[in-house]
Design a protein that fits this description.
Length: about 350
């Protein structure tokens, strides 16, 4: 009997993911207080983000991750001129000499290994493992060693990611706008579970999972176990360099958050040019607030992505900007599960 990927979890596991990612709040707050003295630098008044970033010695990506988290914690705000300013909470409790200052207490965690690792990532703007033999865990590009090229590591990491996909895939299959679509290209599709759920929901649909060779071995196993191997093709390739397989819908599920802004703009434009008229590009991911001030669980997930990949979490307005640049129109974000949602770009008018 083939496995079903359309069964919904009886209980929402979102809180488990929030607790799991919660340690990044400790690391970012301690780094802001003990290493960067962020709040002291705002004691005298508002500062523009570029100016503050330069004084901290941070590139744009780590600065966005740090400032977003501090705003989500209610410690920084933006004023009418979009400058960063201390919140009353930070002014009362995170400035040295304030009557109720707790900055020294927070600083007790400064020597914790996780805090030191976060500081190293913020200063270098490089993912963990980028300079090591086995390479970065979840990304692949020319010139960067990737754990996804090693069979044992690729299997372990891909199956670990399957835990989330098993919960979220039935929700994506329920809301993804795939009516009339004949071929779905799942870019960086990993286990293929998102495609498999869509195939089981849409019996006439075919799918191509486009990923690294070692990862595709697992996708093939999952397709066979779910009884859709005859409609799911596994195709190896480099999404930044190789010819894009032909499809009338393209899925980017939890892919763009692995990459920085220039790579995302390049990839979206590259994929959009291959779509036929009325084709669609589905971005399935988490979405920060458009103001980049939360929500806090996603600001902390953004920190996790930052330390493991070359990306971070993005807002819907950032994604919409890239879709528009690529000639696509977009609709609203439709929620799935575990803070995820799907934003669809259409080649033609949004309907």
């Amino acid at each position: 009997m083939p496995h079903s990927s359309l069964a919904f979890p009886a209980l929402d596991p979102t809180s488990i993911f929030e607790h799991f990612r919660g340690s990044y709040g400790t690391e970012l707050l301690t780094a802001a207080v003990g290493e960067f003295r962020l709040f002291e630098k705002l004691r005298a008044g508002p500062r523009s983000e570029p100016d503050l970033r330069r004084e901290l010695g941070l590139e744009d990506r780590p600065a966005v991750v740090l400032f977003t988290a501090m705003r989500a914690m209610g410690l920084l705000h933006r004023d009418a001129d979009q400058r960063l300013v201390l919140s009353p909470l930070a002014r009362d409790h995170l400035l040295e000499g304030a009557p109720f200052d707790v900055s020294a207490y927070v600083g007790l965690a400064s020597e914790a290994p996780g805090v030191k690792e976060m500081i190293a990532r913020l200063k270098s703007n490089k993912p963990a493992g980028a300079a090591e033999e086995k390479g970065a865990a979840f990304i692949y590009r020319e010139g960067l060693e990737s754990a996804m090229e090693h069979e044992a590591d690729a299997r372990r990491l891909t199956l670990a990611l399957a835990g989330r996909a098993k919960n979220v895939a039935p929700h994506l299959a329920r809301v993804a706008p795939l009516e009339g679509v004949t071929t779905l290209l799942d870019v960086g599709g990993g286990t293929g579970l998102y495609s498999i759920a869509c195939l089981q929901r849409h019996p006439r649909l075919r799918a191509i999972v486009w990923d690294r060779p070692e990862v595709l071995k697992i996708a093939h196993e999952f397709a066979s176990a779910h009884g859709v191997a005859d409609r799911l093709e596994t195709r190896p390739g480099d999404m930044f360099a190789d010819a894009v397989p032909s499809a009338d819908a393209i899925l980017l599920s939890n892919i763009l958050h692995d990459w920085d802004v220039p790579q995302n703009r390049q990839l979206i434009k590259r994929l959009a040019t291959t779509l036929p008229a009325n084709g669609r590009l589905l971005i399935h991911d988490v979405f920060l607030n458009d103001a980049l001030d939360g929500p806090l669980p996603l600001a902390l997930y953004s920190a996790a992505l930052f330390t493991l990949t070359e990306g971070r979490a993005y807002s819907a307005v950032e994604y919409r900007t890239w879709l528009t640049e690529a000639g696509l129109t977009s609709g609203p974000v439709t929620p799935t599960l575990i803070h995820c949602g799907v934003l669809t770009g259409f080649k033609g008018d949004y309907t």
